[in-house]
């Protein structure tokens, strides 16, 4: 038997989401997001975010959300500041830069976070009018290394952005796990009021596909749908996204799934440590990073789907295991029993 810990989108969708889509499947709905489900889902998201005037739009995936939002919010001569490990920079094959904008990277810490003081030299350098002008800061919550921004950290970053004419955009592909984490000290409304735009990731937390983009400041939203259409992000059967996201925010389902993924990752992380495995970082969310000898990788390959994250040294590799809404205690315990001890 092989266990699936490669990512948090190896399984289709939570049964409640599938049931809701099936129930609406043949009833007939208007396309392009002009349907009753999408309208109700947008209202519900504004409600749970505490942002009654926010713009809410649905797109199909994280890269699409990142590229569309950053390209829309920036003027043609402006650039996005991004942690060197950020998804916009590291995993999207230049998709954002293909829109004509530059990425200015800063070194993230081991957790994948950046802090305001790191941005000061970059802003000073780019006062030169012959260089691109930083216009937006991109971060992820949870980060690519599984960490969570605290309220104090996000407040400091947002205050800095507002004082320096920058917008703050948060990649929320794993926002459910971030907000459900024991390391988190923010509510969703508190989080929503500490950035200019963010998205609520569904693809990695229980939907078949889809992200809910929220731009919290109405003055930033004029013309967004045209930009969405121009960048090929308008879905004809948009009502499917509306149905899915409406279901996510019934009975706290979105956060229950995030907690489930986090708890299973914590169980795996604890079990690996008990077996003598070295952790690369301690993750409070649904990603687990371990340093393994290359010599045992064939044994891991035989029992588990996982991901090689990065080289550690000449004889070791950092590997990543990811839990999701469908991961069970039996999955974790079965994997742990099948993996070798490294004491």
From TrEMBL:
Keyword match Cell wall biogenesis/degradation: no
The Aromatic amino acid beta-eliminating lyase/threonine aldolase domain, residue ranges: 14-292
Keywords associated with the record: Aminotransferase, Pyridoxal phosphate, Transferase
Gene3D superfamilies: Aspartate Aminotransferase, domain 1, Type I PLP-dependent aspartate aminotransferase-like (Major domain)
The UniProt record lists the keyword Signal: no
Pfam families: Beta_elim_lyase
Lineage top rank: taxon: Bacteria
Cofactors: pyridoxal 5'-phosphate
InterPro entries for this protein: ArAA_b-elim_lyase/Thr_aldolase, PyrdxlP-dep_Trfase, PyrdxlP-dep_Trfase_major, PyrdxlP-dep_Trfase_small
Alphabetized GO MF terms: transaminase activity
Family: Belongs to the threonine aldolase family.
Protein name per Swiss-Prot or TrEMBL: Aminotransferase class I/II-fold pyridoxal phosphate-dependent enzyme
């Amino acid at each position: 038997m092989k266990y699936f810990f490669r990512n948090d989108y190896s399984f289709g969708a939570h049964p409640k989401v599938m049931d809701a889509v099936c129930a609406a499947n043949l009833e007939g709905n208007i396309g392009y997001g002009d349907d009753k489900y999408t309208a109700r889902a947008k209202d519900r998201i504004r409600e749970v975010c505490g942002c009654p005037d926010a713009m809410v739009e649905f797109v199909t995936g994280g890269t699409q959300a990142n590229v569309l939002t950053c390209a829309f919010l920036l003027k043609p001569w402006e650039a996005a500041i991004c942690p060197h490990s950020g998804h916009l920079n590291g995993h999207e094959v230049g998709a954002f830069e293909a829109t004509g904008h530059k990425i200015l990277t800063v070194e993230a810490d081991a957790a994948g976070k950046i802090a305001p003081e790191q941005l000061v030299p970059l802003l000073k350098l780019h006062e030169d009018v012959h260089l691109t002008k930083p216009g937006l800061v991109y971060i992820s919550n949870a980060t690519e290394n599984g960490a969570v921004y605290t309220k104090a950290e996000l407040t400091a970053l947002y205050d800095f952005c507002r004082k320096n004419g920058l917008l703050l955009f948060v990649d929320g592909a794993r926002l459910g796990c971030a907000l459900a984490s024991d390391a988190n000290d923010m509510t969703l409304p508190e989080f929503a009021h500490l950035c200019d735009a963010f998205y609520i990731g569904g693809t990695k937390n229980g939907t078949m596909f889809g992200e809910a983009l929220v731009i919290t400041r109405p003055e930033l939203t004029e013309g967004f749908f045209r930009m969405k259409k121009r960048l090929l992000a308008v879905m004809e059967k948009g009502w499917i996204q509306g149905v899915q996201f409406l279901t996510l925010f019934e009975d706290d389902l979105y956060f229950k799934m995030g907690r489930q993924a986090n708890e299973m990752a914590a169980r795996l992380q604890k079990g690996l440590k008990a077996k003598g495995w070295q952790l690369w970082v301690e993750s409070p969310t649904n990603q687990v990073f371990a340093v393994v000898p290359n010599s045992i990788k064939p044994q891991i390959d035989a029992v588990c789907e996982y991901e090689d994250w990065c080289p550690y040294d000449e004889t070791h590799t950092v590997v990543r295991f990811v839990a999701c809404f469908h991961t069970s205690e039996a999955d974790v315990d079965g994997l742990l029993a099948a993996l070798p001890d490294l004491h």
